[in-house]
Amino acid sequence: YQSKELKKNIFELATAYLASGLNPEKCIFFVQSQVEAHAELAWLLGTITPIGELQRMTQYKEKVKKYPKDINAGLVNYPVLMAADILLYQTDLVPVGKDQQQHVELARTIARKFNQKFGQTFKEPKVLLPKTGAKIMSLQNPKKKMSKTDDPRGCLELFEEPEEIKKKIMAAVTDPGKAIKYSDSKPGISNLLTIYSLFSGKSIKELERNFKGKGYEEFKKSLTKLLINSLEPFRRKRKELLSREVYVKEILNAGAKRAKTIAQLTLEEAKKKMGLI
């Protein structure tokens, strides 16, 4: 990454989360690097985590295959840092996509191993996986996960302009035949049905009935309209937040202060159990 861009990216990501509905009065919202306990606990947990387990992580293997010359210790140990992020706050449930489920399972394994070795310290977190939409696929290649880095044309962004939404949905890959039906043999239309279901609140079966006998073009136009209307409040809120940098930073600083109090208690308990001074 470009270090000069990092501060800007952090601010923009914070506005994205706030615009998406996170309420700082109901949650503790902060930047990980503001709370030193994350890095310290990750180091301690790394001492009981076999390197082989980290190298078996699917995302690690994908990165090794894709960027063989850019592999470093930070990438290998990243799942341990994620475990620290979770365990520091005695987390019960972790909402993730299907691609991150393996990392939460590793956090459970690390927590269990620590508790067995040093005494009960951490809760074993459970995965909170949505029944629909646990993994959204690319609009251009419905057999691959939606990702901006792989193909921006296949990635639908929350704050996309209406014309760009229309362009991407109308150009989304579909399947042979005209039936609007969810099926493993129809990954393209199945992916679009999943997106429609998530934004409309309607079941996929209900959508199949509603669009029975209708073509892909009519379905895509309906989905486009739904997405534009649904995402408009997010675009509007984010535009407002981007002009209120001081306000956003105040939220992050207040969240970090609250997070430090909780994290430090857990870290001190873990160090005490390990016999550290």
UniProtKB/TrEMBL annotation:
Keywords: Aminoacyl-tRNA synthetase, ATP-binding, Ligase, Nucleotide-binding, Protein biosynthesis. It catalyses: tRNA(Trp) + L-tryptophan + ATP = L-tryptophyl-tRNA(Trp) + AMP + diphosphate + H(+). Its EC number is 6.1.1.2. GO terms for molecular function: ATP binding; tryptophan-tRNA ligase activity. Gene3D superfamilies: HUPs, Tyrosyl-Transfer RNA Synthetase. GO terms for biological process: tryptophanyl-tRNA aminoacylation. CDD domains: TrpRS_core. InterPro entries: aa-tRNA-synth_Ic, Rossmann-like_a/b/a_fold, Trp-tRNA-ligase, Trp-tRNA_synthetase. GO terms for cellular component: cytosol. Belongs to the class-I aminoacyl-tRNA synthetase family. NCBIfam families: trpS. This is tryptophan--tRNA ligase. It comes from marine sediment metagenome.
